[in-house]
Each structure stands twice: as structure tokens, then as C-alpha cells.
Amino acid sequence: MKSLYLTAAAAALLVTPAAAEMTDGKIKIGVLNDQSGVYSALGGTGSLEAAKMAAEEFGGKIGDAPIEVVGADHQNKADIGSNIARQWYDTEQVDTIFDLTTSSVALAVRAISDEKKKITMVTGGGTTELTGKACSPYGFHWAYDTHALAVSTGGALVKAGGDSWYFLTADYAFGYSLEENTTKTVEGAGGKVLGNVRFPIGATDYSAFLLQAQASGAKVVGLASAGMDTQNQIKQAAEFGITAGGQNLAGLLLMITDVHGLGLQAAQGLYLTESYYWDRNDASRAFAQKYKERTGAMPSMVQAATYSAARQYLKAIEAAGTDETEAVAAKLHEMPVQDAFAENGKVLANGRMVSDVYLFQVKKPEESKGEWDYYNLIATIPGEEAYMKAEDSGCALVK
Amino acid sequence: MTMIFGIPIQAFLGQLLVGLINGSFYALLSLGLAVIFGLLRVINFAHGAQYMLGAFVAFLGLKHLGIPYWAALVVAPLVVGAFGALIERTMLSRLYNLDPLYGLLFTFGLALTLEGTMRWYYGASGQPYSAPAALTGAIKLPFMVLPIYRAWVIVASLVVCLAVWALIEKTRLGATLRAATENPSLVQSFGINVPMLLTLTYALGAGLAALAGVLAAPIYQVSPLMGSNIIIVVFAVVVVGGMGSILGAIVTGYLLGVAEGLTKVFYPEASNIVIFVIMAIVLILRPAGLFGKEG
User: Fold this and answer.
1) Which of A13, A54, A148, B79 is most enclosed, with most CB atoms within 10 A?
2) How far is A77 from chain B (nearest CA, A)?
3) Range of B154's domain?
4) How confident is the model over B52-103, as pLDDT tens digits?
5) From which residue to which does the signal peptide run (chain A) (predicted)?
6) Helices A103-115 and A173-188, interaxial angle, to 10°?
7) Based on the structure, what is the number of domains in chain B?
8) Which CATH code is given to the segment(s) A2-144+280-355?
9) H-type helices in B171-273, by residue range?
10) Which of A212, A239, A260 is nearest residue B125 as measured by Cβ atoms?
């Protein structure tokens, strides 16, 4: 390591001052996600703020090159996301794109970034395709994916006797991926899937779908959706007496911002999987507190992961001594991740950042000691078990 | 088991009822829009925002002032109605003599401003609001579990829709109102304060939206986005019913709610576009809408 620094220093002396190593004199991070719709609470401007916090830790610059963080709203539409990405890369000197909530948009932007040889660090999108068929030497996936969610939540519930499932699935890439992965886990553990229904995202009224789930008689109703869709489903499931009738609800992607929106009264007892919880250790608490002072809310795992990914990206630039894509991507692949989000995280050959994920159960209102005290830790699933091995991911980069 | 169109009759009846519940919201919202358009010739794009404000008044009233649900049913429409009156008096009324496009643009801007403001304060994730104790729980019907609250929504919406229709079509006040829009200067010459009538009409429309908002609060999350999610559908309802036709708006609201509910059984993926498909077909066959007057 020391010799590396020496070489870098020597090279710097030989060639030019530090700023000149940056391709255009500055480092510009774009945070592209849903800033107004159903997923804006779990990512949104919170992710933008988290990326800014990472930049500030570096004093706002690396060498002489200033770090700039910009954000935009893709409205969960792949065409809008693609247009913004092209504009950012072509005319606004954006070096990399972060967050990319909504898998369909993430996949579209990933393809454009590949073509333009730019690094993407997905923290909001969840489909395993990002590190599978659509993997890229410059593409990274932080926070979570549908495989990890399925292994953790699906596996735990089948073990607890929930061996027949019915899915309420969001009608797009992420929903399919989550349903498919969970189905595999459930069937692998000896359970069976009785049926599914696919709803358009942002449907707001789910009673028709919930009635079908109820009529199926499945022991577990798996909600393969996210954000406000899932919130409304949980609220309305209570109304139609789904849980009172003996069926269990599994929020396959539920984050703390959703639980906060629902309130403990409606959310208590739910099982869910996250890769970050603010009240886990000193580092996570310190980051969360700082984040809350700026935004008024605790960070979701997507927001915390955006901070982690931005920090790692900037560290990689520092280590590489340049923001040139190949060099930074190589550093990102080799450096361990150690921060408020992950302990001993590592990046696999397919771009997947692997760290522990946690199965939580939402506390009862009387157990909670205060605002944002929401989870009981049920199990810690080591990253190697939660995520697919790079060899099995279907990524062409892995031999 | 008896089957109908290849699905069990139980499921069919259940979906029919669910469709009626959604139809209740469509009817209530499109009613307000139809009243405002029919009498003021203003396309009120802020209707969704006023619906959202109604839900927020209920939520904030309960949180900060302890106003219970039943009181909110009265308070929220009054507050939002008064706000509507203020907007109409100070801004919207200046646009009556211009092209209707200006009113549309103004209310659209107003909707964006209101939504943006609420999102700034409360974020996009929803706020919880519980149904009153008397309306929680469910009735077990032979073909489905019917939450009591949903049954209440159907009844409340039907009563309000009929009352408003009767007010405008059957009473003297309603007759004056209709006359005032046909020929304002003539009605004014009878000593009737026409601008005041128009203000009250806009306030009534806004109040109806707020009432729908309070009814919706316990079912959906109270969220700044709840209005923009529903407003486009409601516009489609008004267009299908015939712009400005009050009875048309009510009947079409229920009909489209049911059509949407049934689509959720047969082909769920299409459930959010079926209303627009129907709208396109109606516009081709009957451009003035189902209940609209030709020309």
C-alpha cells in the first residue's frame, strides 16, 4: 500500500498538479431517482443529501478538483431517466450516476452508462439482473437486491410454517424479479406458491387484489412491491381482515420510511429485511443522527447506501489518483467497504457489494421507546449467504 | 360452485362491490368538477389538490387540535371551501372573461403549488389516519368480507351526490345559479349578487372534494400525492359523463368504478387504463359524452 502511495506521489510530481488528473477538472456525481412519486420517501432528495454528506467528508474536493453533487427526478419512467442520463453525460460533465431507484429505469440508465463508459452505483433499484445479465465492468450494486430479500424474508417465513404463498406483484422488472426469487426460495424450502396477481404501480386501491389473495387461502401473502404501494396494501389488508383471518403478510421490500408512514399500530408484527438500520452500532447511529439533523428523518437503507457508495467512489478516486473510469472501477472492485452502512463489505466480480443483511420484526407500539425505534433484530444473514455467488449470477464477466 | 364468466360467483360479486366503493369516490369527485365546470365554465385542475387538502385538514386537525373524524367531515369541507372562495375571489374570478384555457392553466399551477408545499412539509410518504372506532371491523357477507368503513363510504357518497344534484336541479337557489351562468347581466338586474353566487359555487365544489378527501383518509395514506393519483381518472369520468352534466358525472362515476373493479379480476395489468379506453370509445361514438347535450 505504502509503495502504491509513493508511486502515485512520484507520478504526480513527474506529470502535473493533482487537478489535472481529473478528466475535466472536477468530480461530478449525479443522483438520479424518484423525487416526487411513490418511491421518493425511501430515496428521493434524502439520497441526494446523503451523497452530499459523503462529499463533505472529503472537504468538498479531492486534490484541487471540487466535488459537485447534482440530483434529478426520473419519475419512475425509463425514457425520462435515459434522457436525463444522456444529457448529464453529454453536456453537463457528470462522471457517475447514483441511486437509480426503480429497476426498469436502473436497467435503461445502466445500458447508456456502459455505452459511454461511465460508472453507475445502484442503491435504489433492486433487480438481480443488474449484476446478472446486465452486469458491467463499470456497474456496481449496493444496498440490497431481490435475491437477498427473498432469501431472508422468504426463507424465515417458510421455516416458521408459512409454506403456501400468494403474491401481490408490482407489474414491472423489480416485482417480477422479487416474485421469481422468492418463489425459488419458498419452493426450495418445501413450500408452494398458490397464485399471483400483478397490479400496475401506484394503483392506490388494492381491495380487489387482496380479495383474490384472501380467497386463495394461502398462509402467506407476499407483497412483491415497494414504497407507498406496499404501505397501502398493508393498511387495506388490515381492513379486509387478512391477518385477522390467519394469513400472514410479508412485505418483501419494506423500509423504515414505510414503517414510519404506516405507524406501528398498522405495521406491528411484520417481517422485513433491510441491510441497514440506524440503531445497530455506533457508526450507524452517528451517521443517522447527522442525517436526521439535515433532513428531519432517519435514513432508509437506500439513503444510507447512497452515502456509503458515494464515499467509496470518492475514496477510489483518491486511491487511483484519477477519476478515469477504468482506474476507479478497478479500485472499487478491490477496496473493502467499511463505514456506517457496511462492515467488511466487499465487491464481487459482477459488481455486487456484499455485506450482511438483517431480518427484522416491527415492534409493537408498547415496545417502542421513542420515535424511529421500530425494529427487533430477528436474524443476521451473512452477506455470502444472502447474495448470489458471482459464478451463479449469469454475469458474462465472471468466468 | 356457480361460475360466471369463468370465475366463481363469490369473487364476481365481491369485485362488483369493491368497484362500487371506488365508484363512490369517483362520483363524489367528478360531481364537484361537473358543478364547477357546468356553472363557472372553469376546468378545475386543482380539484385533486383540494381533495388532498381535505384529507390533510382531517389529519392535522386530529393530530394538533383533537378534532375527531365526525367533526372533520364538516370542518374540512368548510376550511377548504373557504380557501376555495378566497382563491376564486382574489384570482380565479379575474379570468372569467378570458379564454377557458387561462382558468385551466391557473388551477393547474395552483395544484402544483399546493402539492409542492405539502410535500415540502410532510414528505411524499403517507401519514396514517385511522377510521373512527364505530366504523372499524368488518361484516362477513356470504361472498366477501366487507369492511364497515367501506360500506359507510358508499352510503355517505350516495346521499351527498343525490343532495347536491337535488340542490342544483330541483331548488330555487339552483335555478337561480343556472340562470346566472346562462345570462349573468339579466340575473344581476333582478338584484341578485351574481359574483357572490359564483364564489359560493366554487367553494361548494372545493368543499365536495375536501369531503371526499376526509372519506378517503382512513383507506389510503394521507399523502400530498393522493390527489394527482386520482384526478386524471376523475377527469376521464367527467368527459365520459358529458362535461358539466351533474347526473352524468354521478352515474358515470359508479359505472366506471365497477368497470375498473371487474377489470382487476379478468386482466389486472390493464386496470389502470381501462377507464381511458372507455373514454376513447365514448368520445368516438358520442363526442359530447354519455349524458352531454350535443352541440
Assistant:
1) A148
2) 16
3) 3-285
4) 999 999 999 998 999 999 999 999 999 999 999 999 999 999 998 888 899 9
5) 1-20
6) 110
7) 1
8) 3.40.50.2300
9) 172-182, 184-189, 194-216, 226-241, 246-266
10) A260
